Amino acid sequence: MSYIIDANVLMGALISGKSFYKTVFQQLNPLLPQFALTEIEKYSETIINKSKLKDDELKRFTIAIFQPLTILPTYYLSDYALRESTRLIGETDPKDVAYLALAIQLNGVLLTRDQPIYREARSRGFRRIMLFDDFLRTHL
C-alpha cells in the first residue's frame, strides 16, 4: 500500500520534534508531490519559530524525517489523476490537488489533517483518504 502525506502532516511532525514521527515515517515510506517542498519552504519560518527543538536539533530531526520520504516531480502526475483530483477537491482547495492526484495515480491512501478536503473527497465518493490522527489510532 502506498501512503501519500500532505504538507500539513509533514509540518506537524517537524514542529513537534517528536521521534515518534521518525518511526511512523520509516514504517510508511510516504510519498509526496513536489509541491510539498514549496509549502514547507513557504512556512519554514513558522516551523522554525514553533518548533520545540533548538536550531541544530531541528536540522538533525529534519534529516531524519525526510530520509524515508519520496518526493515525486510534478511531471509524474498523469492528466487523468489531476483532472479527477480537481473534480473531487478543486473547488475546496486547489493547492491540495497534487496530493490527491498522487493517491489516485498510485491507488494509494492520502493521509491528511485537512478536514475540508477530507470531507469533500469522501462526499464525492473517494474513500482512499484518511485523517492522519484517525490512521494513527487505527493502524499503529
UniProtKB/TrEMBL annotation:
Q: Is the keyword Cell division in the record? A: no
Q: Which Gene3D superfamilies match?
A: 5'-nuclease
The PIN domain sits at 4-116
Q: Which GO terms describe its molecular function?
A: DNA binding
Alphabetically list the UniProt keywords. DNA-binding
Q: Which InterPro entries match?
A: PIN-like_dom_sf (IPR029060), PIN_dom (IPR002716)
Q: Which residues form a coiled coil?
A: none
What is one Pfam family matched by this protein?
Answer: PIN_2
Entry superkingdom: Bacteria
* Coiled coil as UniProt keyword: no
Record's protein name: DNA-binding protein
